[in-house]
Task: inverse folding
């Protein structure tokens, strides 16, 4: 039977696809059998079924829907930048079927009611699973713990003050202790603010040349070290967000070797761009942590290859054009990343021979899901039918029209990338199709 | 359009030939200063806005005099007390000013890159009068003009810049301009004020003052921002003076011909002693006079003025 893209049936076959799961890309053509939002069956070859519609995958790659453990959807409080509804559109466009939101909204997600608010907004949009994190500290003030237990019951999957660090060592210690008892993850935005100070970009040649205040690597390294030691002492699960320095990679590597319960993520931009991108005072290259140097890119890349860094996360951080048109030192930190994540990683990692496609997909799916123990990121019989169709060879030039986020602050605008998300399915239902 | 394009953002962007043309033109204007009437009608009917987002006395007055001596109509806009404080973006302010049909904007702003941004979004000419710690090209040019008056060709000459190099737009403009003319630049100051990456901008780094000035032809002393003390960057004025103050004692350890410059305003007995500041081996007020000439030259050349014509008619 013919497959109707405009009316996705409850049961259908996806055939002529290369399945990519469990870290491996199948060389042989395979199929996926979807029934009522679940995977009824999958494997190599092509079953002959005349009674249900067949989507011809045309040799594309079929992978689990991507999982991003680090996004900012800005709602409530900064809806001019993004809302949950626009954020999940961007996610679906990037091939994501699950995202973890950061709690630094206004007001912040520091109560159960706020967690439910995010979940409700996401349910209305229904384009992507949304798992909120809660704040570690009330009001993100870094002074007192939020009610972790109550927030977890409302649906929070972890805790973080992301956007800023928990400078108070004892509070971070308590958070890890408390979270350990509850079985949830504490995520560190690792930055010693007394070292980063008024810095706006990586401290080095370019900051010196441009006359902009620098953020030294030590601001990140020292805090990653502190948090790894606290994780070791408490046994709590520490997740290090957006690792950007070669030093932090080494500290995490050693902690993992010692058996510390630590995981880490790296962003597509820290894997692909360096501080020279700030050279024309481009605020689309301004984010925190900042773009660093070639040696850092090599180190975080190697860290991702080795598994020291567990997954890729975008740190999708939308800001309005007006804000990003402020002077570099005044403009807010952050770039959007959902729509370009796969293409950037495919271009800079897979096509450069650092990782094969199967390994990249694992770092964008199951490895990410495991950080917060999410029921996502895997494609298996009986499981949820969250999947993507990918063309890893399609080359495209990123334009503003390719973005579905409310904002346009992408450092890849104008860049030519290889690898395209052709379609995204959530519970068997189409949430994104290239060309729509 | 002149050989200079529309804007002057920094000396990094200029070629050696362009710098020499500006200096030659400034020399020609400088000769006008000794006439009974110091005004030329070159910019008659043109409007220049001095847009200062940071308080400045001498740079603004110097530009204003340069504009007046070229017969321009001028407007001073002290943005440190204006709508900018009320959240208006730089673009909105600038577009409003441009809508009033101005020909040139001289801007000082605390953010690096502000002048380049303005030049990009406006049709009017933009002269950077200091953008944060990035560049201050007319200061660099007036420093170089003053050095050239004393030393002639700067090829192979050694210029030592002492002070808070990290935060200094004057240091950066000096480095770019001087190295293009073949001078050797050494930067010196407390290690907390001299970023290691300075070496990659073309300057030698020498943290020991006496070593840094030993064979210098010129010492360019930068103003220390006293508020840096509260930011823990250095222990205090007394210590700074002891370690990096340019005093008569320090001058005795230099070549006899070595002279001292300072962009002003000076903190006497901090970065420079009064004995040196008022002594025979400084050219500080020469710099101030040259500043007006250099700014006349820049305004003239950016307006499409022909340097050859000026010299011929002089």
Result:
């Amino acid at each position: 039977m013919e497959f109707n893209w405009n009316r996705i049936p409850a049961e259908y076959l996806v055939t002529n696809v290369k399945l990519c799961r469990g870290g491996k890309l199948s060389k042989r053509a395979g199929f996926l059998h979807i029934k009522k939002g679940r995977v009824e069956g999958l494997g190599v070859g092509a079953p002959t079924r005349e009674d249900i519609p067949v989507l011809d995958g045309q040799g594309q790659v079929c992978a689990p829907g991507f999982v991003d453990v680090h996004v900012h959807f800005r709602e409530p409080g900064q809806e001019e930048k993004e809302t949950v509804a626009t954020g999940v559109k961007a996610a679906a466009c990037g091939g994501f079927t699950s995202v973890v939101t950061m709690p630094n909204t206004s007001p912040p997600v520091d109560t159960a009611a706020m967690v439910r608010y995010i979940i409700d907004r996401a349910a209305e949009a229904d384009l992507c699973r949304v798992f909120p994190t809660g704040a570690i500290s009330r009001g993100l003030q870094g002074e007192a713990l939020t009610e972790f237990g109550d927030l977890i019951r409302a649906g929070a999957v972890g805790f973080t003050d992301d956007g800023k660090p928990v400078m108070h060592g004892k509070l971070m210690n308590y958070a890890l202790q408390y979270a350990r008892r509850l079985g949830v993850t504490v995520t560190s935005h690792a930055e010693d603010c007394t070292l980063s100070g008024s810095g706006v970009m990586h401290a080095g040649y370019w900051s010196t040349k441009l006359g902009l205040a620098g953020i030294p690597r030590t601001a990140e390294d020292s805090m990653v070290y502190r948090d790894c030691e606290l994780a070791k002492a408490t046994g709590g699960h520490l997740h290090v967000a957006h690792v950007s320095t070669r030093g932090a990679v080494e500290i995490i590597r050693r902690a993992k070797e010692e058996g510390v319960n630590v995981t880490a993520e790296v962003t597509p931009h820290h894997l692909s761009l360096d501080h020279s991108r700030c050279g024309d005072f481009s605020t689309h290259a301004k984010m925190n942590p900042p773009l660093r140097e070639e040696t850092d890119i090599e180190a975080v890349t190697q860290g991702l290859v080795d598994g020291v860094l567990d997954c890729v996360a975008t740190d999708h951080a939308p800001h309005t054009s007006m804000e990003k048109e402020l002077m570099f030192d005044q403009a807010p930190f952050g770039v959007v990343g959902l729509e370009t994540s796969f293409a950037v990683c495919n271009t800079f990692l897979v096509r450069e021979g650092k990782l094969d496609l199967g390994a990249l997909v694992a770092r964008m799916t199951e490895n990410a899901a495991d950080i917060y123990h999410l029921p996502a990121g895997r494609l298996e019989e009986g499981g949820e039918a969250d999947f993507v169709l990918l063309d890893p060879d399609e080359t495209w030039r990123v334009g503003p029209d390719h973005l579905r986020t409310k904002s346009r602050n992408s450092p890849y605008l104008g860049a030519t990338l290889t690898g395209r998300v052709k379609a995204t399915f959530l519970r068997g239902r189409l949430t994104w199709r290239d060309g729509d | 359009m002149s050989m200079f394009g529309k804007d002057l953002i920094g000396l990094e962007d200029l070629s050696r030939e362009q710098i020499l043309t500006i200096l030659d033109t400034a020399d020609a204007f400088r000769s006008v200063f000794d006439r009974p009437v110091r005004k030329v009608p070159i910019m008659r009917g043109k409007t220049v806005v001095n847009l200062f987002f940071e308080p400045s006395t001498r740079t603004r007055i110097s530009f204003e005099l340069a504009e007046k001596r070229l017969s321009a109509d001028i407007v001073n806009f002290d943005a440190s007390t204006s709508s900018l404080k009320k959240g208006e973006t730089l673009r909105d302010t600038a577009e409003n000013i441009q809508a009033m049909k101005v020909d040139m904007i001289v801007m000082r702003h605390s953010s690096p890159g502000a002048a380049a941004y303005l030049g990009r979004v406006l049709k009017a000419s933009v002269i950077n009068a200091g953008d944060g710690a990035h560049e201050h090209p007319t200061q660099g040019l007036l420093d170089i003009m003053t050095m050239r008056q004393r030393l002639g060709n700067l090829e192979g000459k050694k210029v030592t810049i002492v002070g808070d190099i990290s935060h200094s737009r004057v240091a950066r403009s000096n480095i770019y301009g001087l190295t293009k003319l073949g001078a050797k630049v050494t930067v010196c100051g407390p290690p907390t004020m001299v970023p290691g990456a300075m070496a990659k901008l073309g300057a030698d780094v020498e943290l020991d003052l006496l070593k840094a000035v030993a064979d210098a032809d010129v010492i360019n002393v930068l103003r220390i921002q006293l508020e840096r003390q509260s930011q823990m960057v250095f222990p205090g004025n007394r210590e700074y003076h002891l370690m990096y103050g340019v005093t008569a004692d320090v001058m005795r350890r230099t070549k006899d011909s070595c002279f001292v410059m300072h962009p002003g305003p000076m903190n006497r007995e901090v970065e420079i002693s009064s004995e040196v500041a008022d002594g025979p081996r400084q050219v500080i007020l020469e710099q101030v006079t040259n500043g007006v000439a250099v700014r006349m030259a820049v305004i003239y050349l950016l307006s499409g003025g022909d340097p050859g014509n000026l010299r011929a008619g002089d």
About this structure: Residues 137-284 of chain B form a domain with the Rossmann fold fold (CATH 3.40.50.1370). The mean pLDDT of chain B is 92. The first strand of chain B starts at residue 47 and ends at 52. The beta strands of chain B are 47-52, 73-78, 104-109, 125-131, 158-162, 184-188, 204-205, 218-221, 259-261.
